[in-house]
Amino acid sequence: MRKSHAATVPTRHELLTPCQMTQADQACIAAGVAGTVLMQRAGQAVALAMMRRWQPCRVAVLCGPGNNGGDGFIIAQSLRDKGWSVAVFLLQAPQQLRADAAWALQQWQGPIDDAASFDAAEWDLVVDAIFGAGLNRTVDGQALQWIAQCDAAGVPVCAVDMPSGIDGANGQVMGRALRAELTVSFFRAKPGHYLLPGRAYCGALVLADIGIPSDVAPVVECRTWLNTPALWQAVWPQAQALDHKYKRGHVLVLGGALLTGAARLSAQAAQRIGSGLVTIAAPELVWGLYAQTMQGCMVQAFSTGQELRQMLQEGRRNVCLIGPGAGVQSLTRDAVLNAAVAGKHLVLDADALTVFADAPETLFTALAARDAETVLTPHEGEFTRLFGMGGDADKCLRAQRAAQRAGAVLVFKGADTVIAAPDGRTAINANAPATLATGGSGDVLAGITAGLLAQGMPAFEAACAAVWMHGEAANTLGPHLIADDLLGAIAHLPLAFLSEN
Fold first, then answer.
1. Nearest Cα to 164, choosing from 149, 152, 174?
2. What mean pLDDT do residues 211-223 have?
3. 80 and 109 Cβ atoms separated by less than 8 Å
4. Helix (H) or strand (E) holding 271
5. 426-428 and 418-420 beta bridge pairing
6. What single string gives the DSSP state of each residue in 14-71?
7. pLDDT tens digits for 91-113?
C-alpha cells in the first residue's frame, strides 16, 4: 500500500472533539499554565473579536454553570472596561459555581441579573456563554427559554466556543440551539463547527490563540482534520519532463448502456485532472455513441462478460472506475469483483455500490483479500443501503466504521462530505457550495478521484484532494453550474495551494 503523508499536516488543521480539547487544556495546565489564565485569555479573545465586528451597544451575557459561563464573566468585564453597556444573567445561583468559573465571577464588577428576567428584545447583542461545545444532553429549562427568546427576537448572537445546543463532537442539535452570527473558539476547531447542521448555526468562525502550546496536540492523538490542501499537497502529482502517458496512469471507466452521460463525465474528469490515459469500456450497442463524443479517450467495445473481464485485467490499466450509469445488474457486480481479483485500484460509485446492497459482505470480502486500494463514494442513500447505520447521527463515526468494515477509503458525500480511511484518519470538507446538488456532479467527483489515484496518490489523500478540488471548482462557477461546467473549471484552478503550509 502506498505511503500516506497525513502526519505532515500542520497542527492548525486538526479538529478536536470536546473530550480531546479537555485533554489539551489539562496538558497545558499540567505544563504550568493556570486554568484561570486560559479562561482570562479566552474571554478577552472573544471580547476582542466582538469589538472588531460590532460597535459598542447594549449586550446581554448569558452565562451557564461551567467554564463556558466563566468565559462569559471575563467577556462581560472586558466589554464593560471599553465602555459597552453590559448585563450578566446566570443560569444558576452564584454560590454554586466552582473552580475557575467561581474565580471568573469575582472578576465581574457588576450585578448578576435574575435568569428569568432576561428579555432578548431589550438587547442589541447577546453573548452565548451557556454551554459551549461539550453539551451531550437535550437543552431544557431556563436555557431553552433563553434560546427561544433569542430566536423570536432575532437578536445577533456571539457564541463562545460553540452555539449552545450544538454537540461539538458531531454538529447535532440537542433539541434546540442558538443561531450565532459569530462563534469564537480556541486552540483548535471542533468537528461540530464543520459538520451539519452545526456549521449552519455557527455563523462566522474565529479560532483564537489563547497560548496553549501546539506540542500538547499529540497528547490527544488527533486523527481528524479539516480538509485543506495542507492535508495532501505533499503527494500531489506533478508532471515531470521525462514523464510519458503511461507513467501518468491509465483509468478504465465502465460505460453504461442507457445513462451514457455519467461515464463520459467521469472519464473526462479523470483526463482533466491529469491521468495519462483513459479508456471507456462500452457495451457494443452504444460503442458508436461513446466513440463519437469522447475524442480524447479510447473507447473499447465489449459484448460479453468475458470480453469485459479481459479489459479489466489488462496490465497497464491501474485504476478501474465502476458505477456511474453502469446499471444495477450482474454485469456491474461481476466487473467489480473481477477488477478486485485483478489487483486494480478501484473507485466504486453509484450502481457499483447499490448492486451489493443485498450482499455487502461479498464486496467487503473481495476488497479485503488484496493489496490495491479502493475508494467508495456513497451519498446518504447509497451509504444506508450498503452499510446500514442509518440511525446514528454522528457522520464521522459512521464513516469511520464503514471504512474499517469495507477496508476502503470512504467518501461519505453531502454538503459536509466526510472522508475516512480504514486506519481511522478522517477529514471533513467545508468548501462545497449548494450548487453541487445537481445531476452528474458526483460522476465528476468519481473521475477526479480515479485520475489522482492513477497518478500515484495514496487513496486517502487522493479522495481528500478530489473532494476539495470539486468544491473549489464549483465555487468559481457561480449559481448556475451544471456538471459539465466543472470539467473546465478543474482545468483552470490555480495551483497556488501547492505552496501552502
1. 174
2. 77
3. yes
4. helix 260-272
5. antiparallel
6. BB--HHHHHHHHHHHHHTT--HHHHHHHHHHHHHHHHHHHS-S-EEEEEE-SSHHHHH
7. 999 989 899 999 999 999 999 99
